[in-house]
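Message: I would value a second opinion on how I read folds in C-alpha cell form. Give me a protein, with the fold worked out from its sequence. Write it directly below this note and I will take it from there.
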Amino acid sequence: LLNRWNQPFYDALARRDLPGFLHQLMVFAAIAGGLLVLNVGQTWLNQTIRLKLREALTLDLIEEWMRPARAFRLAHAGAIGVNPDQRMQQDAGHLSDLSTDLGVGLLQAFILLASFIGVLWTLSSGFVFHIGGYSLAIPGYMVWAAILYAGIASWLSWLVGRPLIRFNSDRYTREAELRSSMVRVNENIDAIALAHGEADARRQLELDLVTVLGAMRRIYSAQINLSWVTDTYGWITVVAPILVAAPVYFAGDISFGGLMMAVGAFNQVHSSLRWFINNIGGIADWRATLMRVADFRIALGETDVFHDTEKRIIFAENPGGTLTFEKLEV
C-alpha cells in the first residue's frame, strides 16, 4: 500500500495539485496507522519469543548439568568445565537474544520480499531500452538488478566478515578466563593476603586482561574492514535504484511518479535482500555463541561416557564383612 501511494503522491506534487496532495497525506496517515499496529505487534512477538527461548534453553542446560554427579565430573573435565555458570547464564541469554533478533528479522525480510517482488516485477516488466536503434525488453529487469546487486554485496560481506566468527569465539573464551581468575582471587583473598601474594595475583589478572584486549582488537579490526564494505554499499544504495531506472525515465517511457514508485519497490526488495549484509556481524556472533553453548551441552553428555570407561575406584559391599582391596598397586 505504501509503495502504491508513492505514485499518486509524487504525481500530485509534480502537477502542483494541492487538493490531491492533501488527500494523499490523509491516505498516508491511514497507512501509517496500520503499519504502526504491525510494528507494535512485531515488538511483542520479539520479546515473547526471546523470553520463551531463554527459559527453555536455560532450563535444559540446568537439567543436564544437575544430573547425578555430572557437575562434579564436568568440573574435572578440563577447560570446558571451568565456567559452567557463564555458559548457562551469559552465553545462553546471549544466544537467545541473537536467535530471536535474527529469526524475527529474517521472517520480516521474507515477508517484505514476498510482498514487493511481484510489484517490482510488474513495474519493471514494461521497461524497454533503446540501444543503437534496437529495443531491448528484460522481463522483471529491476528484480534481477536488485538480486544481483544484493548478491555481490552479500558475498563480499561474508568474505570480509567471516573471521569474526573465530574472533568472537576466542574473545568469549578469554573473557571467561579473566572472570575465572577474578573469582579465584576473590575466593582465596585471605590466603593471598596472608602470603602477601597480591603482586602475583595482580600479574596474573593483568596477563588475562592482555589476552582479552588482544581478542577485542582483532574483532574491532575485522569490524572496521567489514565497515568498508557495508558502508560503501550503503552509500551506493542511495542512488542505485534511480541509476537502474534512469534510462527508461529519460527515454520518456515512465512518469516521475512511476519512477518514484519503481524506486520505492526496488528499495523494499533490496532492503529484504540485504538482511544478510546488515546482520553479518550478528550472524558471526550468533554462530560463535552457538558453538560455545553446543560444546557445553555435548560435554555434559560425554562426561557420562568417560565416567563409564575410565579407571576408577569401585566400592562394593563385602558379604564377609571384612575390608578387602583388589588389584591394588602401590
Q: What stands out?
A: The chain has one domain: 2-302.
